[in-house]
Amino acid sequence: MAQQRALPQSKETLLQSYNKRLKDDIKSVMDNFTEIIKTAKVRAGESLMKLVSDLKQFLILNDFPSVNEAIDQRNQQLRALQEECDRKLITLRDEISIDLYELEEEYYSSSSSLCEANDLPLCEAYGRLDLDTDSADGLSAPLLASPEPSAGPLQAAAPAHSHAGGPGPTEHA
Q1: Nearest residue to 126 via CA among 107, 104, 109, 143
Q2: Which of 68, 79, 118, 128 has the fewest Cβ atoms within 10 angstroms?
Q3: Are 144 and 170 in contact (CB under 8 A)?
Q4: Contact at 8 Å (CB) between 129 and 120?
């Protein structure tokens, strides 16, 4: 009888040990399954974020109508800015031209009244130098470029003070 009781007791302890191992194994499987679910959720979240990123990139790179519209709009803005700058530059050029012409007139009118007999414009001084060195050529006066295109390509220099290098009065009293 003692042996019969020993067997059931050992069966009982064996069953209890099986139950304990079963519970531990079930708990381990549950923990592993929970970790797998967590990892799957993380991977799914990462996958969704990558998908969203890829869709955005595709939309940005391949949405030709909106890209073309943005390019056209920027081109129009830049053309308007260019036209405005051109208008301002033309206005500035015209104003500077008028001011320069007025300054030249003032300069040449004031310089002709201040000139002494020995002070000659550069073109006449150069012409006299030519007369001294080239008198064998038979030229009585040096030839100068005409300040006005309608006056002909060349004309003889006059002894009066003249300005042959630019716009403005060519003879001063």
Answers
A1: 143
A2: 118
A3: no
A4: no
pLDDT digits (tens, 9 = 90+) for 5-38: 555 678 889 999 999 999 999 999 999 999 988 8
Q: Which amino acid is at 160?
A: A
Rounded Cα distance, 146 and 170, in Å: 10
Residues in the chain: 173
> What is the rounded CA–CA span in Å between residue 59 and residue 61?
6
What tokens were used for 170?
Answer: 């060519």
Q: CB neighbours of 158 closer than 8 A, spacing ≥ 6?
A: 171
Specify the amino acid at residue 34. T
Tens-digit pLDDT profile for residues 133-151: 554 444 444 444 444 444 4
pTM over 0.85: no
Q: Number of C-alpha atoms within 13 angstroms, CB side, residue 118?
A: 0
Short-list 173, 116, 111, 171, CA closest to 147: 171
